[in-house]
Amino acid sequence: MESIKSVFFRPDPQAQVRKCNQLIRQNTRKLDRDIANMKIAENKAKNFIIQAHRRAQRNPSQAKQAEKDIRVFARELVRSRKQTTRLVTSKAQLNSVAMQVQEAFAVRKIEGSIRSSVGIMKDVNSLVRLPELTGTMRELSQELVKAGIIEEMVGDSLPDELEEEDDEVETEVDKVLGEILQDKMSKVGATPTTPTPVQQQPVAEDEDEEDAEAMLDQMRGRLEALKS
């Protein structure tokens, strides 16, 4: 029935703009959730680095393993930050699409016709390739094609991920470690220390070490799962 209607009746512009706005809002909420999750992942990786650094200082025999763990967590932090930057850029593109779509429908209402937009098509094509939004962005692109705002898109498959050079990654890792550990040491140096009863100090250290070990085990398990 819907296919027969589409042959004899033009789509309702108001229904089209509502559908487009709904899909844009849906994608915006998805990006907001993903950005928030990446921020949480960044903070966890940062805490793992600090815990591993403390473990190396308290247990010189574990310093070598702790150093390896620190660099693993730092690489995870670098990846999380790059992903966050990519998601924020995508959200800006989506906001641009939203404004251009509203403008296109407004022009259609005034002039009675609509012109395809190369700018919207470029942004939509970029967002369709984003793994987090592939399904709903493809649906939005179909609605925009029906409305005549963009032309039929081809080649919307996911792009090949470019592998970063090891030197670049290691440079970023060094920067991250310098940023986190230097900031941590400066805070420690600036904070006045208070005497702690001798009988309570070993207990506190044991608890910190147990917490650190538990977090390290969780992170290693997640990393192994990602590799497999």
Automatic annotation (TrEMBL):
Segments of this protein annotated with the region Disordered: 184-212
GO biological process, one term: vacuolar transport
UniProt biased composition (Low complexity): 191-203
InterPro entries (alphabetical): Snf7_fam
Protein name: Snf7-domain-containing protein
